[in-house]
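Chain X:
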Amino acid sequence: MRVLLVEDDEPVAESLRRGLLRYGFAVEWVTTGAAALAAPGPYDLVLLDLGLPDTDGLDVCRALRRRGDVPIIVISARSDETDRVVGLEIGADDYVSKPFGVREVIARIRAVLRRARPAAEPAGPQRYGTRLSVDRKAGRVRLDGAEVPLTPKEFDLLAFLTEEPGALMSREQIMEAVWDANWFGPTKTLDVHVAGLRRKLSGAVVIEAVRGVGFRLELVEGAPEPAGGPG
């Protein structure tokens, strides 16, 4: 996954670059609008600062949008509503105000990419270990062949966590993916739904809480990576 980072503030850019690399993104960093427009693509996403030394980032955003539909997330110290509205109206997919945390930016990236390129649903159930199968298209979960009654949000949470078994997902990522990109309420509801999954899927998966970060789903019995096809 290739990201074009357009940011002239070196400390901010280095922090973002290191964070993106940790999450598996390949990063091309440029410091001016001219370099951004001249950068050889294609890119899967653009992170664009508005306060560039040679041009207004809004003009760069407008030019990039005229060229194609690459997802664009504006990152800017301009936090007033007018700039946010203008950025979104000229083609940005999201707008993050400085200061921000790297985890927040990663969550925004994943949400924008999911909206821009929704993954095709698998043709049938996918198996997770020897006991659990998840049929995303039908919205059904089976444990040892028997269907497990999950609430809609429990199903969405399980479907998200099993996309990358073993990966640590932050609370922000989970809330944005499972609830809403603009969720501003308490995250206690997440703990309640995790507890429900633990109870209903005991012995098939372990959902580990990582204090201050989020959750990690592990398959039980040294289960292999999930494979497509009927389960």
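Chain Y:
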Amino acid sequence: MSAMSTVPSPPPAPAPADGPVTLDRRDGPFGEVVLRGRGEHFEIIANGCFLMDTSDGRSERLLIDAALAALPADRTGPGVLIGGLGVGFSLVRAAGQERWGRIAVVEREEAIVDWHRTGPLARISAGALADPRTEILHTDLLAHLRTTTERYDALCLDIDNGPDWTVTEDNGTLYSATGLALCKERLTPGGVLAVWSAQPSPDFEQALRNAGFSEVGTEEVQVARGVPDVVHLARRAV
């Protein structure tokens, strides 16, 4: 019997040119946060959970547009609190609208703030960060809501994949009766709460009504696959 010939294994296929490349990885008080590049776009991953990327941004812009449209037309220089800097689309949208007065952005991840100020994401947000109306607050959103005495005409919140899919367990408090009461307290009379979600949440809509908000509804952005992204909207009574 002749000896069996050994066929060498083929070399591993090279990674696709547009595959993800890790640009930075940080360990912080809330776990690991990673910035990846994929071709011309960027992705943010928190504790292994995909948060957002720069491939679209329509729903992040809708978060701002819908809140502004819902405010009374005669309200001059309304102030907005944006919960979550992310890839910067919501901030850039707000800074591009002359009607807004103060634009405060709460971001708890120091790495994300750094990526915008001196890192790769500066190419998206540099102009908005230089806007004199813009203020970056490096703190946790819930901590800010509990401790600040400021009131805002709009709260535009995008810190999770939605009320039913939080990045960290503690974030769930934001969507509870306690968290929604904090949100309402930080709004001016007639102010608007806008919450981004990767899918509709009827339970959250009911929670908004139970918390005393009025005009509760959603606006949708269709996506290529699956259920649409939505912005949940609600108003504090005048």
